[in-house]
């Protein structure tokens, strides 16, 4: 960065910031600030402006760290990314306008100076966008993990009988998880009968059916039996209309009937006392 | 390398402790059928608990052994197929549909008993 530019920015620091803040107030009306108190908004604006100008003097690493801590703080209090991008665009516009109207730079150097300013601003924008997307990806990862944990539990309900309730759509990745949990669980609980409950599965298409059939076959190979329960009327209709053959393993309409049938298969039954 | 075949009353017990290669599997098929003939056994349990891998050829041999033994009047139950093995078999499209299975040796023997009584 040319020292003349830096000097210019520093000498006119207050004017630039004032102008920028005025413009920010115009665009901020009702945009990012819903809910935030006016004082908080003003304070954040001040801080942001000071930070932008301070980055001029810092070395790269320090600027990066400062920006990161600032953006992280705002991220957690829910400031949108557009606050930063719009703010920086505005800052650039104000700065360039200021430079041209006040004749602080010789016209021969206009392009060079503009480029310097662009580079400076772009660096900040890039980092902020990276910070935000990084935080989104992180959140997404956490949610995926949480979903995975909730995805396919195998619950032993009686001796030798376990239930796996499935809720939500089943894709290939989840089907794999279902199969693994199912087989590991059978070995662990020594289950002879497992009930796969699809009450909570909204749509059963050919792919879902295929995964379920595969799981049932694998269950048979490890030496247990699989009963498909929770078949709602509309699911029964789709299955038949799609021509899916579920004839090879037993199906029941409700979990309750499934459990009764499972008990029967292990030579037990529920009796009234 | 031969797989030992143990006789227990009317049954034959086989616990496969090594990963089967083609030669061993074929040798085993022959040995088992001879043993069934010799002892006149009514049932066979083949335990695969310590087998971590079954390829398509071994799967075919196992299916064949079951069918051949049935022809000779001995019911066969496969036990202890590991989850990983089951997934591989299903992925390869090998369902072993006619083969009875059980979780472990104990349940396998129960199953044989049931089938023989039926």
Automatic annotation (TrEMBL), chain A:
PROSITE patterns recorded: STAS
Start and end residues of each STAS domain: 151-262
Gene Ontology terms, MF aspect: heme binding; oxygen binding
Pfam families, alphabetized: Rsbr_N (PF08678), STAS (PF01740)
Domain of life from the UniProt record: Bacteria
Sorted UniProt keywords: Phosphoprotein
PANTHER family (UniProt xref): RSBT ANTAGONIST PROTEIN RSBS-RELATED, RSBT CO-ANTAGONIST PROTEIN RSBRC
Identification of the protein by name: RsbT co-antagonist protein RsbR
Organism field: Salibacterium halotolerans
TrEMBL record, chain B:
Domain STAS: 1-112
Origin superkingdom: Bacteria
One Pfam family of this chain: STAS
UniProt name for this protein: RsbT antagonist protein RsbS
Native source organism of the sequence: Salibacterium qingdaonense
């Amino acid at each position: 960065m040319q020292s003349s530019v830096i000097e210019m920015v520093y000498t006119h620091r207050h004017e630039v910031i004032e102008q920028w803040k005025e413009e920010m107030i115009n665009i901020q009306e009702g945009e990012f600030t819903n809910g935030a108190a006016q004082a908080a908004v003003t304070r954040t604006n001040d801080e942001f402006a000071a930070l932008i100008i301070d980055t001029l003097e810092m070395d790269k690493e320090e600027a990066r760290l400062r920006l990161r801590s600032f953006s992280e703080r705002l991220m957690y209090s829910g400031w949108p990314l557009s606050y930063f991008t719009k703010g920086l665009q505005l800052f650039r516009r104000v700065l360039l306008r200021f430079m041209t109207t006040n004749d602080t730079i010789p016209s021969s150097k206009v392009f060079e100076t503009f480029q310097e300013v662009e580079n400076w601003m772009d660096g900040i924008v890039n980092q902020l966008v990276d910070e935000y997307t990084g935080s989104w990806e992180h959140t997404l990862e956490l949610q995926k993990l949480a979903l995975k944990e909730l995805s396919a539990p195998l619950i032993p309900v009686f001796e030798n009988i376990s239930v796996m309730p499935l809720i939500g759509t089943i894709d290939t990745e989840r089907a794999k998880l279902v199969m693994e949990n199912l087989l590991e669980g059978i070995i662990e609980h020594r289950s002879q009968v497992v009930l796969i409950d699809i009450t909570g599965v909204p749509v059963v298409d050919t792919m879902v059916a295929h995964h379920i059939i595969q799981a049932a076959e694998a269950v048979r190979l490890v030496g247990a039996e699989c009963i498909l329960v929770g078949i709602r009327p509309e699911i029964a209709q789709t299955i038949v209309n799609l021509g899916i053959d579920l004839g090879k393993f037993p199906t029941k309409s409700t979990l309750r009937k499934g459990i009764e049938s499972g008990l029967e298969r292990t030579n037990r039954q529920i009796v009234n006392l | 390398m031969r797989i030992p075949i143990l006789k227990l009353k009317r049954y034959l017990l086989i616990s496969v402790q090594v990963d089967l290669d083609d030669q061993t599997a074929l040798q085993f098929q022959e040995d088992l059928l001879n043993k069934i003939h010799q002892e006149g056994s009514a049932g066979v349990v083949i335990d695969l608990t310590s087998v971590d891998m079954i390829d398509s050829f071994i799967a075919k041999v196992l299916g064949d052994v079951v069918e051949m033994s049935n022809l000779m009047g001995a019911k066969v139950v496969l036990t202890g197929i590991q989850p990983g093995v089951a997934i591989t078999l299903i992925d390869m499209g090998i369902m072993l549909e006619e083969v009875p299975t059980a979780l472990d040796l104990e349940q396998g023997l129960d199953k044989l008993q049931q089938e023989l009584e039926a």
